[in-house]
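the two lines:
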Amino acid sequence: MTSDTLIQALERMVLIRAYEDTLVGLHGQGRAAGTCTSVGQEASAVGVVSALSSEDLILTNHRSAGHLLARGADPGRLMAEVMGKRDGYCKGKSGSLHIAAKEIGVVLTSTIVGGELALATGVALSRATLGGEGIVVCFFGDGAACEGRFHESLNLAALWNLPILYVCENNQWQAFVHRKETTLADSVVPQAAALGMDGKSVDGNDVEAVQAAAAEAVAAVRRTRKPFLLETRTYRLRGHFEPDDQSYVDPSELEQWRGRDPIAVLRARLERDGLLSMGEADAIEARARGIMESAVAFAEASPYPGAEDLTRDVYA
Amino acid sequence: MPTMTVTDAVSAALAEEMRRDPTVLLMGEGVATKRLPLVEEFGAPRVRNTPLAEGIIAGTAAGAAATGLRPVIDLLFAPFLTYAMDEIVNSAGKLRYISGGQFAFPMVVLAQTGAGWGVGAQHNHNNEAWFVHSPGLKVVMPSNPADAKGLLKAAIRDDNPVLFFTDIGLAYADGPVPDGDAVVPLGKAAVLREGADVTLVSYAKTVHGCVQAAARLAEAGIEAEVIDLRTLKPLDEDTILRSVRKTGRLVVVHEASRMCGVGAEIAALVAEKAFGSLRAPVVRLTGPDAPAPASYPLEQAFVPQAEAIESAARGLVEGR
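prediction for all of em together
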């Protein structure tokens, strides 16, 4: 990545962090519902999404803020959605858990763990059938990889040559259970080979490494029209859902991963290499806070849906 | 008018709709094997055998439906739908609403069920009411080949997910099917026989028991009106209520188990909206709260038969 794209990546990651920190704060004040944050996973979201083109489609899950904001979602409309307001991307019907934003190519978000894996094959089948260069990117976690649908989806995608980049954000936690309690496998990548698909595991807290691996994988999917499994090894720094005191988390493990916070790592690197001054970095964070102030104002000013919306959009 | 079976009527509807609309495709375990003429006419990409994995078949259909295709999937037997419940109920049924109307799911799920082949409870479970209870879905269950063809054509053209159940016991029953593009609209019941004394409401196989019972009742001077629901959701409330307001007596018949079945909904509907017209309590004749047995006599005993329908209707009319 060039210094400009690295700085852009930092800006996006800082924006995502500011958005989620703001929501945590609003929740604490009773002004917004609790959310599943992706704090600590920003490099994975930004690294992968920055490797996509505008015609590619994204499927994501309940921990989606990073993917949406990396793709250019409006923080105000996201926040309005979390607050259940009419100007949210889903008119307040989704809340935080299943936000889809078709206009920016984020489609069919499912919060049923593994649901996104089952839908991605269909979206890719449409792409393959109706033409177009776009590929499909499906974000899921290590929890979803324990669902049967993981196997079913990868098997079908490999069998039918579906253009899907599967991105397993291995954040070490499956709700309130550590990954080591749920599987003996250290990585999901070997399962790709078993189904006839290529795969790669990458340090998910290093945005440059993620971007490089994703760009290579996207190019391969685009060229071969075959699926690829990319694993980003990262860590969920906050709880499963706000509020969550994380009393079940090993403090030394948490401390170790906090020391590898992807934003702090990137900022330190940019400062060390003389690509960004401390003042410039502080200005990026200040700008993000300003954007969030406007977003909160927009969301809080947005009206709630009306009673007539209760049964609207059930059927087409 | 040509004669064909329900199975052939389904194939005929698929062929006509695939000819009409290039976005219609068929997927499922064995669909390309069993419906070879469709493969020959439309090619392998539009008639796809799948792995034996109902969840991913249904998920693939939902994802494809939301992004420009009109998939029809054959999940074979209704109990297998349990493996696809997330994709049908949580995705296809809810993601339109949850997303504020950003997506539509024009897809059809085919499944067989009902007594007739002695296949037992893991291939025969009339679970259609589960889907009636789930928002965002439509549910169809025809009783004859003409309706099977016409309703499937309507289901494929509908922009919503449609569960299309066919009755195993009717799969190879012949019937007349009109030539041409005879679409039967969803949500419209058929009045198969008019009568002023008692209303018999049913769907699928037990419609035929109602028709037989009505013929015998007529011999005894009792005129039964027979309603074939055809579509369970949306439910044709008007046709049911209009009939009950005329007859004042209602027998609801289905093979599915009684508790929270479609019959319970119809009884409640009539109690709410036509109570003043009722001259006798509503009677439900249903399968028992038991899994479907394989043994032929037990399988037949599971299904409300014409004799029981006749007796129930006669009891209502004669005030027993």
